[in-house]
Design brief:
Chemotaxis protein chec, Surface presentation of antigens (SPOA), about 35% helix, rod-shaped
């Protein structure tokens, strides 16, 4: 039985499903790229120790995609596993293609690096799935990290699946970042991909973790949108004081004269709210309104009482 999500969790899931963890794709890409490079430093020596010194690994790509799209096809002979963390049932989705598994298998059994690796074009054997599990364990440990930035992944990892089992795997969709690693032996190349939901990436591997638990990030995001909003400004000029009888006799086309001592003070308003006190004037052929000071409602009330 699943527990009911809190309002904060529901808001996060809804926004994530619609726009991603943030509205800035560049920020996600930068965080994923930095994460991949940091993890590579821990992955490379362990791959060389597990397989052979002649096997190298490099971080070659960062892509923004949907989490469910990282699922490999059943006919690709790839291996896949989904790793849970303390705060997420799908913190990492890792896949190893058939070429990467073929390279790992050949390297473990001392294959000649000068010869091309024979691709795997059949269902994976138990040995190959065990190799995939070892590869995934290396990558998961590197991404997990330690200390305050740890993802708190749950070990041991689920056993890798392949073929029809991949199609049967239930996956939650959402915006994600996929980091691609290339395993190289001679001229042969294979690929291991690590896909993370954007919310997990930013919380544990982004630069804004301090804001993730507060409202600062939300205020900044929505504040930017509010500041881009266009509003209409209205400048109101006091003409004169008329009786209701005089106003009732006004007609279309009638001209209202301004007295010599007519006030030049103008109220600048938006959405029926007075914002500033201004001065009405003229600059060349254009009429102008110059902002003098912010509107003070209390002082306005006092002046109205004194002049009443």
């Amino acid at each position: 039985m699943t527990s009911e999500a809190s309002p904060q969790e529901m808001r996060t899931r809804i926004v994530e499903g619609l726009t991603g963890a943030t509205g800035d794709p560049a920020r996600i890409s930068d965080a994923a790229r930095a994460c991949g490079q940091r993890c590579l430093a821990a992955i490379a020596p362990q791959i060389a120790e597990m397989l052979a010194p002649s096997v190298s690994v490099d971080c070659v790509s960062v892509e923004l995609a949907r989490f469910a799209s990282a699922r490999p096809s059943a006919s690709s002979f790839s291996a896949m596993t989904i790793v849970a963390a303390d705060n997420s049932p799908d913190a990492l989705l890792m896949t190893a293609d058939a070429d990467a598994l073929a390279i790992a298998l050949c390297a473990m059994f001392g294959a000649d690096e000068e010869l091309p690796v024979t691709p795997i074009t059949r269902p994976l054997s138990p040995i190959e799935l065990d190799i995939a599990a070892q590869l995934f364990d290396i990558f998961a440990n590197a991404f997990n990290g330690s200390g305050e930035r740890s993802m708190n992944l749950r070990f041991p990892l689920p056993a890798p699946i392949t073929g029809e089992e991949v199609d049967k795997q239930v996956m939650r969709d959402g915006p994600a970042a996929s980091i691609g690693f290339e395993i190289v032996l001679g001229e042969s190349r294979g690929r291991v991909s690590v896909t993370m939901p954007q919310r997990v990436l930013l919380e544990h591997r982004g630069e804004a973790r301090a804001e993730s638990g507060s409202g600062a990030q939300w205020r900044e995001r929505f504040g930017e949108e509010v500041m881009r909003s266009a509003v209409s400004l209205t400048a109101t000029i006091p003409l004169a004081r008329l009786t209701l009888a005089e106003i009732s006799h006004l007609r279309v086309g009638q001209v209202l004269e301004l007295e010599m001592q007519a006030p030049t003070q103008t109220k600048l308003s938006s959405r029926d709210r007075t914002l500033f006190m201004c001065e009405f004037g003229k600059l060349g052929e254009n009429y102008t309104v110059r902002v003098v000071e912010p509107f003070d409602a209390k002082r306005e009330l006092v002046e109205e009482l004194l002049t009443a």
